[in-house]
Amino acid sequence: MNGHAVNGGLSNGQQQQHAGQHDNNGVEAIYKFGKPMLAEFCFREKLVNCNHGAWGAVPRRIMKEQQRLNEQREQDPESFYRYVIDDIFDDTIRTVATFVGAKPENLLLLESATVAMNTVLKSITPKLSPGDKFLTDSHNFPAVRETLQYICNEESGLETITLEPPFPIESEDQIIKLFTDALDADKSIKVVVIDHITSCSGIKFPLERLIPECHKRGRLIIIDGAHAPGQLHLNLESLGADYYIGNLHKWLFTPRGTALLFTQPKHQSTLQPLVISYYQRSPKLRDRFTLMVTRDYNPIMCARFAIKFLNDIGGLDAVIEHNSTLLNWAADMLAEAWGTRVFPLPPTMRAPMMRLVQLPPSDKLKLDTYEDVRQFNKKIFDTATLHVFIASLHGCLWVRISSQVYNSKEDYYYVRDVIRQMLLE
Question: CB-hemisphere CA count at 13 Å for 208?
Fold first, then answer.
């Protein structure tokens, strides 16, 4: 393919260089972004992954740490669960808490953002009354939508109001007004559920402005930050949400089955796990959720190694710089090549590592149902060993692309040519 690997902030004439001069211990970082970083991962031969945001990817060295923990556990399972795991788990919580700007006592590590969202919604529901409402928007994640639908039924008497953000979004003010007008118009809305970064569209909502507006009106706010850790700098204590949920396996290189749940202290006494176990009556939040004996905690406990890996390759600033620079170039290149457009968003509302580009029109392509879209995504992979994600929004078809440290310009030239060819078939 044409093109060369890109580096964050570097001119086209420069070659790839070290991701960062030094890691946090003062040791020179030896990793390079782009194609050289592929050696750190286990991707199958010829796979081009431009959809990192879907499942993430685990570096080899993190997989080795996970295997080491597995072997340590199997050498003496009883000692591991009775005497060893507590100290490792507490160290992991402290490491993650530092990374996301949270106090360790306010943080839980769970299996996924979906588990965390179910935990929160099912814990607060008993405190609501028939006629009370949740407020969300049409860009929320389908699993969250389904959970709200499950909770809001005839028996509970609860309801969900779903807002439709304007298209195109021209400013943060539009979003703030959309939500505050809804809250002011309906006092029965008690809980707001909103993404930090939307999965389907890569919108970064202005939470620093929206959360205070919700609290000013006496509403709880739950943030679905599934795509935020590893993609954004976070300070959960200062952000101030009542609950904040985030995956660590999407953008932070942690093995799958790892998520965080931040809970304000005033809500912790009523937060209950989905599965009741030995320490259900413990006043300590961590005990109620993390001492479930034979559950496999090793993916979660690898989060501390994943954060070290991130720091070793240059740190979050360097990763954001590379990924966002590459993504901005790729999105503009695809839109120009296809004669279409990038999903229109104000600069402050663009996710740094996920973007939508409109597909060129095609009389042959009919994607009217979810199954149609799924089959077309599969056809792309079967034909070209390429992962992207096709989405239907606002009456148009879009391709969602992601950028990560192993991606290079060649990957997106490949996307350009594969999609163009498939639409001509």
Answer: 8
Cα–Cα distance measured from residue 100 to residue 341, given in angstroms and rounded to the nearest whole number? 34
Cα of first residue to Cα of last residue in the chain, in angstroms, is: 20
Helix, coil or strand: residue 29: coil
Quick check: bond before 168 cis, omega within 30?
yes
Q: What is the pLDDT of residues 100-156, one digit of tens each?
A: 999 999 999 999 999 999 999 999 999 999 999 999 999 999 999 999 999 999 899
**Cα separations (Å) of 102 from 237, 264, 365?**
5, 10, 47
Distances (CA, A) of 123 to 160, 238, 273, 284, 295: 17, 24, 8, 16, 22
Residue 364 corresponds to which amino acid? Answer: K
What kind and span of H or E run contains 341? none
Specify the pairing of strand 386-387 against strand 354-358: unpaired
Q: 275 Cβ partners below 8 Å, 6+ apart?
A: 292
| Tokens at 293, concatenated | 């004996």
Quick: pLDDT tens for 46-60.
999 999 999 999 999
**What integer pLDDT is reported at residue 237 of this predicted model?**
98
User: How many alpha carbons fall within 13 Å on the CB side of residue 37?
Assistant: 30
What CA–CA distance (Å, rounded) separates 53 from 259?
A: 14
Return the biggest CA–CA distance within the chain. Answer: 65
Residue type, 190: K
**Which residue, among 109, 118, 354, 145, has the nearest Cα to 248 in the 3D structure?**
109
Q: Taking 60 as the threshold, does the pLDDT of residue 5 lie above it?
A: no
> Which residues partner with 159 through β-bridges?
133
What separation in angstroms does the CA of 375 have from each of 82, 366, 367, 380?
A: 47, 11, 9, 9
Q: Answer whether 250's CB lies under 8 Å from 230's CB.
A: yes
Question: Smallest Cα–Cα separation from 214: which of 235, 243, 246, 237?
Answer: 243
Helical residues (DSSP H) of 225-315, grouped into ranges: 236-239, 285-290, 298-301, 303-312
Closest CA to 141 of 232, 216, 223: 223
Give dist(CA 209, CA 177) in Å, integer: 11
